[in-house]
Amino acid sequence: MSSELAPTVTDRRHWITLVVVGLAQLMVVLDATVVNIALPSAQADLGFSDGQRQWIITAYSLAFASLLLLGGRLSDLIGRKRTFVIGLIGFAAASALGGAASTFELLVAARALQGVFGALLAPTALAVLTTTFTIPKERARAFGVFGAIAGAGGAVGLLLGGFLTEALDWRWNLYINVFIAAVALVGAFLYVPSIARSGPRPRLDVPGTVLISGALFGLVYGFSNAETEGWDAPVTWGMLAGAVVLLVAFVLWQRRATHPLLPLSIVLDRNRGAAYLSVLIAGAGMFGIFLFVTYYLRLTLGYSPIQTGLSFLPMIGMLVLAAQLGTNLLVPRFGPKILVPTGMVLGAIAMVWLTQLDGSSTYAANVLPPLMVMGFAMGTIMPASMQTATLGVDRQFAGVASAMVNTSQQVGGSIGTALLNTLAATAMTDYLAAHAPSTPQVIGDAMIASYATAYWWGAAFFAVGAVVSATLFRRRGHGLSLAHAPAGDAEPVLAH
């Protein structure tokens, strides 16, 4: 069992550590969206087809999602600081390679490498936070900031991507990571605590790693393929079916493995399981906002990339406000059983509100209010869920428990994007079939109808999340309380 060097009194070094891991988290999360706005420019420059374009996104998602649990476990085994530094250097190098790419194939390879090192970086950043902040009040503040970054990273990516593409060049959407990583690297060497390990080093669960990596790869690839090839494509069903088989095999193996990759007690704890599910469902709904509101702003209202990015700033502001209010005041008082379902209900309300958009809607009157409600919803859901998901985990499994948070968000995003895209496309096809001939006005109305379909389904995701979180989270006084978690040198043991 390992022991981190964690002072019992929070000092300035802890808050600098938060800045460092926050930068790393921001870099990983925004990279899921920052490249999207640059794709048309990259396509014109490198000359790849529309069919190939999806691989710029998919290569990153596949590598990132399938290796997250391995990355989290490696941080437990070889040390969080070492893993964090390797992740930063590798991510920066992969970003530089992508920015300098002269061919489509090299750009895809660089994006896949970004995903590999992102899978090291993301869970390690959260694990460092978990083991650095052990005093409940300071832990709440830290997770408020970190949760806000996790929730707002996608919107920041849209804003940054628009600015860099218009002001500089599409390649700077990748080069920017080199500068962020350099700052974080200096901070990591100076401020991220090292690990003092006692006792024998546990072994890596190789069979478990292969099984879960294969399962996650199949899930993300299956859903990505559903977007482009459809749900009836053999590859889609084959990948999803294979993922289910591998997932079942992984669970069976974890029950008998001597050194399990992910002890089942981590995810079977009721509060922690509810937190993972909440992050997954919120991730699925959140991607609907970024994707379809972006389409609406760009294609219907005619906004530029920079204007589109700026349009999400109020949402980010509300998210940060809710994250701070929640973790500092509301979670300690009411617990996640009240706060997370409340955030889910707000998310559903925002989605339903967005279904009212039409061709004559304006940003200030019709888009801004639901965006602000959604920002408050995500700021209510994410920090409370992330804090609960990592609370009470034995330090030697903090990395892999943190990786489950990122995995939940990534898989949720993949599921949400695939489902909402497919449903929206079907709605658009049905609308065009019922309103022939396809004049520009009819096509515009069909697009808006397809967005509304996506919003209705997004609202359904959040409604399900409200029921699930209200049912599964324990009441105050049952299990571990966020406000009264043990402080000191050791994390509380797993609750069963």
Can you give a write-up of this model?
- The chain is an all-alpha fold and 496 residues long.
- The model is unreliable at 1-10 and 477-496 (pLDDT under 50).
- It has a two-stranded antiparallel ribbon with strand order 1-2.
- The chain folds into 2 domains: 10-194 and 261-484, Growth Hormone, Chain: A; 205-260.
- The chain has helices spanning 12-30, 39-46, 50-78, 80-99, 104-132, 136-167, 172-191, 206-229, 234-254, 264-268, 270-300, 305-311, 313-334, 336-354, 363-390, 398-434, 440-472; strands at 2-4, 195-197.
- It contains 17 helices and 2 strands.
Question: What topology emerges from the helices and strands here?
Answer:
Blueprint: E1 2-4, H1 12-30, H2 39-46, H3 50-78, H4 80-99, H5 104-132, H6 136-167, H7 172-191, E2 195-197, H8 206-229, H9 234-254, H10 264-268, H11 270-300, H12 305-311, H13 313-334, H14 336-354, H15 363-390, H16 398-434, H17 440-472
Antiparallel strand pairs: 1-2
Q: How many strands?
A: 2
Distance between the termini: 19 Å
CATH superfamily of the largest domain: MFS general substrate transporter like domains
Helical residues, percent: over 70%
Overall pLDDT, averaged? 83
Taking strands numbered 1, 2, ... along the chain, how are they ordered across the largest sheet?
1-2
Structural class: mainly alpha
Rg value: 22 Å
Oligomeric state of this protein: single chain
In terms of DSSP E residues, the strand content is under 5%
Pick out the low-confidence regions.
1-10, 477-496
Query: Tell me, what is the CATH class of the largest domain?
Result: Mainly Alpha
Order of H and E elements: EHHHHHHHEHHHHHHHHHH
Q: Might you state the CATH topology name of the largest domain?
A: Growth Hormone, Chain: A
